[in-house]
Design a protein that fits this description.
heterodimer; A: two-stranded antiparallel sheet; B: 4-stranded antiparallel β-sheet; 10 helices; globular; binds adenosine-5'-triphosphate; binds magnesium ion
Chain lengths: 305, 239
């Protein structure tokens, strides 16, 4: 029984890494401009397509070691997906920034539908498979014919996520860019009065969120081996749930929320019903919104000024 | 003396409400100029309009010979203007040091340590509180931080909006002494909005009086202090 539990823990952490990376994009954008970027799930989906296409191109060129191929694809995917994230803000949100509050939300939903259709038109509606890039793993335990295994891919996913989150937190906490982002979160006018280029700072926030979603997209492609133009919806809603669970606007909250949602999904599938795993996640969203709308690590709205 | 700021015919609206109705103000290099006026006269609006938030609908703002009326806010302040705005607007979730680092956004990183030391010399309290979350400081300490943050960019023109608001008389005195010191020793030109008309006019070389969006009087600090109109309207009850 312990073995089974341990195996679900590993699976849940892997899933949680993916959700956590996407959740950061929701939470950062919410923090800095106070809107839910509903197109963020689609940015993740585009990241998974760019990674799939890059893998196909690489494998058609010739043989590379798996780790090397993953690194190249990682870089390419982050760059191209970031361009999408940047464009979404420029085209759909910036012109509406001083408009009424609902306008950017509506624009976000429109953007989300547009990006889905865009991929559907250019990549087709059918699921796209990718041959496994990486095989094998480490057997941690084995008895009674049940083995607890962590695959090399899971190790890479978890390590890469932990590394990115540490690096990312350092950028936000320690660098001038991160400081400007936090300043814009609190008071954009004041930040501008101190010489911060607010538009540029907001753009960079979208770029960073998209780059992390791109990594999540790459991981998803590798882990599941099949993607389609609709994966952004479910993954997006789950990552959004993770961000709300952790406390929207809170960076550690998004990471914690991602891990928790991954674990809930894995354990629910294992012990209750795999068919209802998505429902379980949405139940969490509803419960959090009812009982603790500020989330686990979110700050209460009132501030001493 | 050379002109550092020349505001002429400035109009500013908030939606349909007109807050500035053709304001003319000039400030020369090295001066302390104060702007007094009743609540809602448009003083804060003038300081913010100089920085491009909100934008003027008519009129001209010349800073150091350059037309800045239509520049972006972050570009305006990069020319050498700093503002400690109404309500202080410190970043309450950041530490004192981080607030000062934000103040140095436009500065040269090589100057940072020296500028920080300069601000700490003016306000030793800030040095003690370096790592404290600034939102938990007292009102007086927050005001010191707001001024210190504005100084971190090495401004040539410093805009101060009611730096004495809500402070104990002793702290007010201290703040006014610092303003004088900044002006005399560091050569920073100061444009000072104040409710505390008596102190402000005593400190300033010149002053303006604003009433419902227009300048109604101007003169040296001494002249305005002596004027019966100013005395009855803004110096009621002594000082
Ligand atoms: N953001 C805003 N939106 C709408 N009206 C505003 C806004 N800010 C100021 N006003 C209005 O513009 C006018 C001038 O306000 P302003 O804040 O410039 O006055 P002030 O002279 O600084 O007053 P105080 O001494 O109280 O600070 C007031 O009538 C005020 O109600
Ligand atoms: Mg005011």
């Amino acid at each position: 029984m312990m073995d089974y539990f341990l195996q679900q823990l590993i699976n849940g952490l892997t899933l949680g890494a993916v959700y956590g990376l996407i959740a950061i994009g929701y939470t950062m954008v919410y923090g800095i401009i106070g809107m839910i970027n509903f197109a963020h799930g689609e940015i993740f989906m585009i990241g998974s397509f760019i990674s799939l296409i890059s893998f196909l191109i690489l494998s058609s060129i010739g043989a590379f070691s798996a780790v090397f191929a993953i690194l190249i694809v990682l870089l390419v995917t982050m760059i191209f997906t970031a361009v999408f994230g940047w464009s979404v803000e420029r085209i759909a949100y910036r012109p509406l920034r001083d408009s009424f509050k609902l306008a950017p939300l509506i624009s976000a939903i429109g953007m989300s539908i547009f990006l889905q259709s865009f991929v559907q038109v250019f990549q087709g509606a059918r699921p796209k498979p990718l041959q496994p890039i990486m095989h094998g793993g480490i057997k941690l335990l084995e008895h009674d014919g049940f083995a607890v295994q962590i695959s090399y891919l899971q190790i890479i996913i978890i390590l890469l996520t932990v590394g990115l989150m540490i690096g990312f937190t350092a950028v936000i906490q320690q660098t001038p860019l991160g400081r400007s982002q936090r300043a814009c979160e609190q008071d954009r006018t004041m930040a501008a009065l101190l010489g911060v280029n607010v538009d540029r700072t907001i753009s960079l926030t979208f770029v960073m969120g998209a780059a992390l979603a791109a990594v999540a997209g790459l991981m998803f492609t590798l882990y599941y081996g099949v993607i389609d133009f609709f994966i952004g919806f479910l993954a997006g809603v789950k990552a959004f749930t993770a961000a709300v669970l952790g406390g929207i606007g809170s960076l550690p909250g998004a990471m914690l929320g991602g891990v928790l949602i991954g674990l809930i999904e894995a354990f629910w599938s294992a012990y209750f019903s795999i068919a209802y795993k998505d429902v379980a996640v949405f139940m969490v969203l509803v419960l959090v919104l009812i009982f603790r709308p500020t989330g686990l690590l979110g700050r209460p709205e009132v501030e001493k000024v | 003396m050379t002109r550092i700021l020349d505001v002429s015919g400035l109009h500013t609206y908030y939606g349909r409400i007109q807050a500035l109705k053709g304001v003319d103000v000039v400030v020369d290099k090295g001066e302390i100029v104060t702007l007094i006026g009743a609540n809602g006269a448009g003083k804060s609006t003038l300081l913010m309009t100089i920085c491009g938030k909100p934008r003027a609908t008519a009129g001209k703002i010349i800073y150091d010979g350059q037309d800045i009326t239509h520049m972006e806010t972050f570009q305006i302040v990069r020319q050498g203007i700093a503002q400690s705005p109404e309500g202080r607007r410190i970043f309450s979730r950041m530490t004192v040091l981080e607030n000062l680092q934000m103040g140095a956004t436009t500065g040269n990183p090589a100057d940072f340590d020296g500028d920080l030391e300069r601000v700490y010399t003016l306000f030793p309290r800030l040095k003690q509180r370096q790592t404290q979350r600034s939102g938990t400081m007292s009102g007086g300490e927050q005001q010191m931080l707001a001024i210190g943050r504005a100084l971190m960019s090495r401004p040539r023109l410093l805009l101060l909006d009611e730096p004495s608001l809500g402070l104990a008389p002793l702290v007010v005195k201290q703040i006014f002494e610092v303003i004088k010191e900044i002006n005399e020793q560091q050569g920073v030109t100061v444009f000072l909005v104040e409710q505390n008309a008596y102190h402000a006019l005593k400190l300033a070389h010149r002053g303006y009086v604003m009433k419902t969006g227009s300048i109604t009087m101007s003169g040296t600090g001494k002249e305005l202090l002596a004027s019966s109109e100013v005395r009855s309207a803004y110096l009621e009850g002594g000082h």
